[in-house]
Specification:
Distance between the termini: 22 Å
Mean pLDDT: 86
CATH topology: Sulfite Oxidase, Chain A, domain 2
Number of domains: 1
Structural class: alpha+beta
Strand content: 15-25%
Order of helices and strands: HHHHHEEHEEHEEHEEEEHEEH
Shape: globular
Number of helices: 10
CATH superfamily: Oxidoreductase, molybdopterin-binding domain
CATH architecture: Alpha-Beta Complex
Largest sheet: 7 strands, mixed
């Protein structure tokens, strides 16, 4: 797989991929200066910042998830305040549509995500092609409130509706030779205008070690805030792995393959010194161009310390016992 690194028409700019500094979760230096000039007091400035951080934007209406695809059991609790639906659905990384985080929702609005199937292939006893709505009825969706951390330095707390990836993998019955799980996003430039540009080598590919994929915190997501998953958030099926940086969460998945060798994932292949295959949230391992020690929660003014494994160390640290997490970043 070849990815053009320089001089390619439409290649993403460095600032678009990972800006050096994130002054505000939804802003720029210009927004920061405006807020400073207009705020007459700490209180007034704080209120103004809140307005600037989350500008009003139209969001494509979603629909409630059908009752027959919802799990009766309660989801995992979270001590963090959930981000608002408008924040989660108007500030998105999804290069298949746009490199502008504010532009993704508009570009994705016309995506038709039904009918939709996902193929499970590779080193499995029972490969198959599954309709996503049939999957949701077979594996009902429960709320999982997860902290999600972006490599660019911002974070959200999102009430996903999903089911453990392990349930689907168990249905397919991995062979003993399967060591990794490769996930592939839809490749359709007609429906995904960002794929018409030479930004990355399409289709988008991500991957996990098999034990990571089988961990109960690793989920396939079909909804958000009890509603169907909006296109800009990865409809109709995406991955959520809360202890890893957000780009590991493949969106609009069409294929899940069990393989023996570590797959060539998109960002790791694009720039291996910046985007490791594991991409566990580790505040002690800096990105080559900035620190990962702090993060800015969308909707908040100040920064907060970044937690090892994004705060899920008690659940997942054992997966990496004996590994050098600086080398295997």
């Amino acid at each position: 797989m070849r990815i053009k690194r320089s001089g390619a028409p439409g290649r993403v700019k460095e600032a678009e991929v990972t800006p050096k500094e994130v002054f505000f979760s939804h802003g720029s230096r210009r927004t920061f200066l405006k807020a400073g000039l207009l705020g007459g007091s700490v209180l007034a400035t704080g209120a103004l910042y809140e307005t600037l951080l989350v500008p009003p934007r139209k969001v494509r209406p979603s629909t409630p998830l059908p009752k027959d695809v919802l799990a009766a059991a309660p989801g995992l609790p979270s001590e963090d305040k959930k981000n608002r639906y408008e924040e989660i659905t108007t500030y998105n990384n999804f290069y298949e549509f746009s490199t502008d985080k504010y532009g993704v929702a508009e570009e994705a609005a016309k995506l038709v995500s039904r009918p939709w199937t996902v193929a499970v292939t590779g080193l499995v006893q029972r490969p198959g092609v599954f309709d996503v709505d049939a999957l949701f009825r077979r594996f009902p969706l429960e709320e999982r409130v997860y902290r999600m951390r972006c490599v660019e330095g911002w974070s959200m707390v999102i009430p996903w509706m999903g089911f453990p990836l392990a349930r689907l993998l168990a249905l397919a019955a991995p062979l003993g030779s399967a060591k990794f799980v490769e996930l592939q996003t839809l490749h359709d430039p007609a429906r995904m205008p960002g794929q018409r540009r030479d930004i990355l080598d399409w289709p988008y590919v991500e991957g996990l070690r098999l034990d990571e994929a089988m961990h109960p915190l690793t989920i396939l997501v079909g909804g958000l805030y009890g509603e169907t998953l909006p296109p800009q958030n990865g409809a109709p099926l995406r991955l959520a792995v809360p202890w890893k940086y957000g780009f590991k969460g493949a969106k609009s998945i069409v294929r899940i393959s069990l393989v023996e060798k570590q797959p060539k994932t998109t960002w790791n292949h694009y720039s291996p010194d910046e985007y490791g295959f594991y991409s566990n949230v580790n505040p002690e391992v800096a990105h080559p161009r900035w620190s990962q020690a702090e993060e800015r929660r969308i909707g908040e003014l100040g920064k907060r310390p970044t937690l090892p494994f994004n705060g899920y160390g008690a659940e997942v640290a054992s997966l990496y016992a004996g590994m050098d997490l600086r080398k295997n970043f």
